[in-house]
Amino acid sequence: MPGNTFGHTFRITTAGESHGPGNVVIIDGVPPGIEISVEELQVDLDRRRPGQSKIVTQRKEADIPEILSGVFEGRTTGTSLAILIRNEDQRSRDYGNIKDIYRPGHADYTFDAKYGFRDYRGGGRSSARETTVRVAAGVIAKKILQQTCGGRVVGYVTQVGDVHANIPDPGSITLEQVETRSDGTPNIVRCPDEEAADRMIELIDTVRKEQDSIGGAAEIVATGIPAGLGEPVFDKLKADLAKALFSLPAVLGVEYGIGFGCTTMRGTAHNDHFIPGQSPTIITTDSNRHGGMLGGISSGLPIVLRAAVKPTSSLSQEQPTVTKDGEPTTISTKGRHDPCLLPRFIPMAEAMVAITIVDHYLRWKSQTVLDNKEI
Amino acid sequence: MPGNTFGHTFRITTAGESHGPGNVVIIDGVPPGIEISVEELQVDLDRRRPGQSKIVTQRKEADIPEILSGVFEGRTTGTSLAILIRNEDQRSRDYGNIKDIYRPGHADYTFDAKYGFRDYRGGGRSSARETTVRVAAGVIAKKILQQTCGGRVVGYVTQVGDVHANIPDPGSITLEQVETRSDGTPNIVRCPDEEAADRMIELIDTVRKEQDSIGGAAEIVATGIPAGLGEPVFDKLKADLAKALFSLPAVLGVEYGIGFGCTTMRGTAHNDHFIPGQSPTIITTDSNRHGGMLGGISSGLPIVLRAAVKPTSSLSQEQPTVTKDGEPTTISTKGRHDPCLLPRFIPMAEAMVAITIVDHYLRWKSQTVLDNKEI
Amino acid sequence: MPGNTFGHTFRITTAGESHGPGNVVIIDGVPPGIEISVEELQVDLDRRRPGQSKIVTQRKEADIPEILSGVFEGRTTGTSLAILIRNEDQRSRDYGNIKDIYRPGHADYTFDAKYGFRDYRGGGRSSARETTVRVAAGVIAKKILQQTCGGRVVGYVTQVGDVHANIPDPGSITLEQVETRSDGTPNIVRCPDEEAADRMIELIDTVRKEQDSIGGAAEIVATGIPAGLGEPVFDKLKADLAKALFSLPAVLGVEYGIGFGCTTMRGTAHNDHFIPGQSPTIITTDSNRHGGMLGGISSGLPIVLRAAVKPTSSLSQEQPTVTKDGEPTTISTKGRHDPCLLPRFIPMAEAMVAITIVDHYLRWKSQTVLDNKEI
Amino acid sequence: MPGNTFGHTFRITTAGESHGPGNVVIIDGVPPGIEISVEELQVDLDRRRPGQSKIVTQRKEADIPEILSGVFEGRTTGTSLAILIRNEDQRSRDYGNIKDIYRPGHADYTFDAKYGFRDYRGGGRSSARETTVRVAAGVIAKKILQQTCGGRVVGYVTQVGDVHANIPDPGSITLEQVETRSDGTPNIVRCPDEEAADRMIELIDTVRKEQDSIGGAAEIVATGIPAGLGEPVFDKLKADLAKALFSLPAVLGVEYGIGFGCTTMRGTAHNDHFIPGQSPTIITTDSNRHGGMLGGISSGLPIVLRAAVKPTSSLSQEQPTVTKDGEPTTISTKGRHDPCLLPRFIPMAEAMVAITIVDHYLRWKSQTVLDNKEI
């Protein structure tokens, strides 16, 4: 059952619920000597935070991280690093409306079926609030990637409802483009195609007014990742990345490279062609339908993943459901919810991708970089 | 690096290459007392075997399993169970054409980049031949599922190129429908929509004649699985199932339930509605867009997954590529290859899904079924 | 490298240093519905606490636990349970004397050799302070054992220097005997042989006055543990218990049953004889030289382990050593240290033994208790 | 339950029984490019083999290893390496005498209690025959150690009954001394103190003639191991080494350095003193009571472990016991058994120690050897 741990060599373990004292992550396997500060953690936490723009939930949570261990005089020590993010809003509230009623699309019923009862306050452990500490751990993973191989992970929204972004070159998108529009204003929907971004915002605004929600898709791209990461046969990089993204709430599908587009293709059209790379020992391809992974191992090209994210299940309009005794009733989830999960999904997805790649980077180094190169 | 192990409580570890002595799996965590025979293993191995029909590779491999341990007097003992499948064709051959040339779409380059050199004979460890022993392990997983909770896992082909099957009720498809057509002849493409199956076979035949290959998609359905399997937060059942399918060669995408279809939906249309189930303690839903999993935990409804499988990379026609020194050249892969991977993919995918669910079943039992029910 | 996690199915992960903000443990795999309170955690924390008697260190730490997650309305929820124990004394102090000097018998040098630098304040991660949260996790493990199989874990001191206790029947010792003398006063040395206890206290007092320290041994006994726990071949119960005890600071040796006494014995004298047990399906033995484990699997008899604990390395008298540059110097460790580690070692050792047995209990249940008993 | 896997980064998984088809090990995490041959594996297998001298069991087993995967053209490929050792003697035999009777000191009863039944032929999975493949894996671990850091693991017998060897400098003992006496004849008891060896042989011969057996102790020494291996806090090197040795059959106690000798020592006498080492960055100690590990992390000094091994439980003389129904009976184990386990124990113990250290070596490299040394 221990399902609260992710990773083999760079490993995170989390705990915490939506309305308990807080969420905590223990990160094990952090290389020593990495400079890290709470301010750096805060950057991505702010990208994930409620209330950051008009198109996300207006709940207020500051999400201030406290580093409990593993950092001394500003640098990681190599021992386990713990980060605590306290929940601000723990006051007693009336949860009578969800204590005995199963919210459609939520894990209320499956938690009851599994454990016999549940912490019903705001979803308890099934709340997306537990992703706060994943995001904090992701910041550390990104720093390790950057300092070891110059790797970088950037995500952005490619689809909201039927509005699709046009991103001709995923490997070229920068964090700046994701966060800030060309006019210097915040890119609140995190779509670098600004024309599409405008229509996405409009659509989100419409569904919000209609007390509804809308699904979408995100693309996450890792560049600068050396060829050779990923383990045959079960811990293929594609397999661990897929698990990482599917471990996030609301993800119903994951693909990489050409993805589901491969189903209608012929081999002659699908195969990327190898060509000489920028140095004699590096081979590359003239297209990237393989999404940066061949045989589950990184090829050196940009790793490109896409995730399908369902529309928010919580709706302020009435929905039919049953009580835990099976009695028909209706529910409208008060609180303030995201009309579209995608803008806040981006930092969560980046974090999980970065954590997975760092894990594989350290695994790769462990096995294949021998001290005595002659052997 | 140990990437050759899958599962936490029901755990398989594999070894073996395409042209070495053979492939072996060690299965750990098998409950004692399960009756098992090599004949039962052979059934699914025959469904995976080359040469089983005109639309798959015509290579000959009998794939005879030998149980090395863990079974005594026809029953599992509870100790680790090993199965060996020897390779028949180990004779020395001329691999000069692939030793120093990178086959497009294959792992030749990424293995070289990772390890510095590779067993180039037939793909070595990256060959799909390693899935033989996964299929054997899957037979044992299926038996455990059947004997403990009455669970069942069935897969079938839903798409080949642009031919789509129409499967209105995934949970109703039987193994018999997948294997045998209504007229009693073998369902060689493993698509239960017989009209679509005819067109799929025709398409596969066409691409084969054109020395090309074609992609497609498969659906894998698990029924009879109790509500409550899957662990928050990382080992969600959806996450482990996705990893399981992505660990198979050629899989570029995985989705469950409505999958990528959710991206254009509104919450009101997407949420399944809870209704009373067949007994007072069971709740169900009147639709299954959630694919049998909510919050990553099984809901009791059929678990429905889909995988996108790329067109076979090996083609008998010439393809441009480079040598390992980056010199342009061409390659045509002699051997005999599947023009479409889907028909033989089905037993592999069923095996991985069954193995994953048994693992979670045993994990669930461990934590939540206490001896003293009062507590 | 992730070495901060212990256990397979009942799993603890810890973080924290001696003088950082605090120590935290995440416990994964806790069965749902177990009643638990901070008051219960406090009981064993108080048994471990500094300043509890005149023969232990006189440092002051209240060691107040905060449950961060995994408990709702007084009962475990089944999701990951986190406990935080803040360090009280974090004020800036002059560590100049140990920053650049290697304390004899401590991990200062090996941490520097491993990580390149270290948190030198009070030993950082190598301080025994990290065992606070292990003790808290142990309380939960003890409760699970008690509620599932009626199992119990009790430890006591059997040796201090050359003073040996006489414990004819380890399985009969109670927590009460360990904590309280027959006259109702606290058993401050935790040795149930009161005559020996008096001499132990006298010896500890002597070495303390001489600014020295003294080693000793502890016995930990688990009773009520059903036969069948432990996994062939690597995760033998004896192997995991030994690892558990060796993971504690200062432990230089572990044995079970007759232990090192077996080296001079003949088989005829060593083998315990099987005899009928208290019910037709239970077999027992007429002696317990096997310490409750045969083939690494529990036999139903009391599990009896012993650990050798070295004399405290920190001494207030001057000891010769070197600086990190290899320059000869001397050091006297100011602070207040235990002249003998054994009295406070008992709750730590009990915790690790209980955690290990619960892990194996849940593993056993997972594999061998099938729903359908007929198979 | 999966208890048949050992190691985190260098990981072995085994299967096999005493009288089944054979035993198999899968080794995962092997660095690529290591030269290895079956002849090298055979060397240690011959040191473990029955019938090698007059003082061990006279059973005949050739123990010929077959490498199934992971080696190509004489070098490891980096993918999982499997080794199969078939059992020669599989003929049907009359096991009536042990099928329903519990042999004293064996795992017959505990296996029945755990699994409900057992493979009773020669002990099945609880037979020491499973250590064949551990020894084979140990050869590969020793090669990796030798090629990466120049490390070496050597074991020898220090005690048989009350005969103690005098080994003043454990770190200086060579494999040659263990295997060959100064006169060139085989050192059949594997004790480098030849005078003690003579008396050990005499004692073993005496107990054999008396249809009895005798216990003893072994010392295993690893030299050339760099400082810094081992992970705080649970995966201390001492903890994993202890688990490794306790996972071997018949081991009742493990200690390192001064071991249980610490219990009567004072801190002033126990602490080793740091002194400058052979280079400016290396610190050493002027004694090695700490057995090469401080805080569970290697110090660079020889790692010195001792294991207590019980007298063989199988005796050819009659012993009282019960049937599985609890009926009193007697048993004399026919077969041919070792009168003392120690001589054949040495290669098993060396293998487990080497495997553990390689695992930690690769873990250490993964975390602490960053490409960019500046950070």
TrEMBL record, chains A, B, C, D:
Reduced FMN (FMNH(2)). InterPro entries: Chorismate_synth, Chorismate_synth_AroC_sf, Chorismate_synthase_CS. Signal peptide: none annotated. FMN binds at R125, S126, S127, G295, K310, P311, T312, S313, S314, R336. This is Chorismate synthase. Keywords: Amino-acid biosynthesis, Aromatic amino acid biosynthesis, FAD, Flavoprotein, FMN, Lyase, NADP. Its EC number is 4.2.3.5. One of its GO terms (molecular function) is FMN binding. Transmembrane segments: none annotated. Belongs to the chorismate synthase family. It comes from Rubinisphaera italica. GO terms for cellular component: cytosol. The gene is aroC.
